[in-house]
Amino acid sequence: MANVPPPLSAQEFFTPELLRDPYPIYRRYLDGPGLQFLTIHGGVWAAFKHADCSTFLRDPRLSAKRTGTLIDEFPTEKQKEFAELARTLSLWMLFFDAPEHTRLRKLMNKGFSPVAIESLRPQIEKIVHRLLMPLRNNHRMDILPQFAHPLPTYVIAELLSVPDSLHEKFIRWSNAVATVFGNPYRTVDDLVAAQQAIHGLTSYFREAVAVRRRQKGNDLISLLLEIEEDGDVLTEEELYAQCVMLLFGGHETTRNLIGNGLYTLLRHPEQAAELRNNPELIRSAVEELLRYESPVQYTGRMVLQDFEFCGVPARRGQEIIFMLGAANRDGSQFEDPDRLDLKRAKNPHLAFGAGAHFCIGNQLARLEGQVAVLRILQEFPEMRSVSAEPEWLPNFSFRGLKALLVEA
Ligand code: HEM
User: Ligand 1 centroid to 362 CA: how many Å?
Assistant: First the structure.
C-alpha cells in the first residue's frame, strides 16, 4: 500500500489557501506519494503526479459519466428538484463514454480541424481590435471584464451564430453553470441558478437550430445538424446539449488562459519584454502560460470496477480527480517546474487533459491566447498591475482571477 496521508474532508482539502496559492500544497504531494483520499461523495481519490494523470485519464476502467456527483450530497427531495439539471448535463459529449463518445467526437472533430480553426484568425484579430479600442483612452481599468472575459464569448458566439445582443446574458448563464462545477461548497441557490441558465441556453439553441434547419450555414450548429440528420448519433435534445457545452467550454476556460496569462506576464516584466520584442516566441509562451497557471486545475472520472490504483484500492462508484494544475508542476516532467520560462522547449503539459476527452477546442484556445496576449503586450508596452493581493474566484476547478486592475 502506498504511503498515503490520512483522509481529509472537503473542508480540510478545499481551503482558501488552496485557492490563493495551490502550488506549495501540490509540491507536498508531488514530492510524496502523489495521492490524497477525500471523504466526499463516498470517497474520492485525488491524483497529483503527471504520469498518473496522463496514464489513468486514458484508462477504460474509469468513466466520464459523473454528473450525478453534482447533486448527490443533497437530500433526496432536493436531488429530485435538480434531476433535470443533472440529466441535461449528462447529454454533453464531455460526459459520454465509448462507443457513443468516439462516434460523436469523430464527427465533431470536423468543425475543429486545424484548417477550420486557422481560418478564424482574421475574425479573432478583428474582435481583439474592437475590444481594445475603448481601452486606449482608459488609463486605469480592470482588464478582465473589459477584454479577457468577453473575447472568448464573442468568438464562440460567432461560431455558434449567437447575436451580439445576447452576449451579456450568455456570459451570465455560462458563469452560473460554472459555479456548480469544481465547487465542493455549491449551494441549493447555485443549483437553481445553473438549472435556470441551462433552460435559458437550451431554449435559445432550440430556436437557433430550427432556423438553421431551414437554411444551413457554415457554422458549428449546421455541422451538428448534419451529424444529427446523418443517423443515430445525436438526438435533437443531445444536439442542443452540445451547443450549450461548446458555449460553456469555449468561454469558462479561455477567458482564464488570457486573464491568468496577462497576470503572470505582468509579474514577469523581463520575460514579457522579451516576448514583445520577439513575437515568434508566442507559441511556446502560450504553452508555458497554460502550464504555469492552468485554467482547469482538475477534472474527474468515476471508477467502473474495483482495481488497484497507484498502489491503493479504488472501489466501484468512487471518483478519482486528476489534479492537472499539480501535474503541470511535476519536476519529473518539467525542468525547474515552478519557474516561468516562456521559451521552454519540452512542455508536455496536461492543461487540455489527455486521452479520448482531450480538449476539442485546444487549437482555438491557443489561437485566441496567442492573438490576445501578443496584441496587448504590443499595444500597451507600459501596462502594469495595480491590484494589491490578487483575489481568485471561489472555484477550485476553473482557476481565474476576480479582477485584474491595470494601468497602461
Ligand atoms: C485554455 C482554454 C481551454 C482549456 C484549458 C480547456 C481544458 C479542457 C480540458 C482539461 C478538457 C478535458 C476534460 C476531461 O477530460 O474531463 C477539455 C475538454 C473539452 N473542451 Fe476544452 N479547454 C479550453 C478551451 C476550449 C474551447 C475554446 C472549447 C470549445 C470551443 C472547448 C471545448 C471542450 C469540449 C467540448 C471538451 C470535451 C471533449 C470531449 O469530451 O471529447 N474547450 N477542455
Answer: 7
Q: Is the pTM of this model over 0.70?
A: yes
CA-to-CA distance for 157 and 137, rounded, in angstroms? 27
Distance of CA 351 from the midpoint of ligand 1 (Å): 9
Nearest Cα neighbor of 233 from 241, 60, 201 is: 241
Q: Verify whether ligand 1 is closer than 6 Å to residue 361 (CB atom).
A: yes
Atom of ligand 1 nearest to the CA of 368: 27
Average pLDDT over residues 321-325: 98
- Kindly tell me if the per-residue pLDDT of 118 is higher than 90: yes
pLDDT over 80 (residue 271)? yes
Residue 34 Cβ inside 6 Å of ligand 1? The answer reads no
pLDDT in tens, 154-205: 999 888 888 889 988 988 998 899 888 878 889 999 999 999 999 999 999 9
For residue 88, what are the contacts with CB-CB under 8 A and spacing of at least 6? 198, 202, 241, 244
As a whole number of angstroms, the distance between CA 35 and CA 66 comes to 20
- Which CATH superfamily hosts domain 10-407? Cytochrome P450 (1.10.630.10)
Distance, CA 358 to ligand 1 centroid (Å)?
7
What is the rounded CA–CA span in Å between residue 119 and residue 113? Answer: 10
Rounded to 10 degrees, the C-alpha dihedral 222/355/359/267 comes to -170
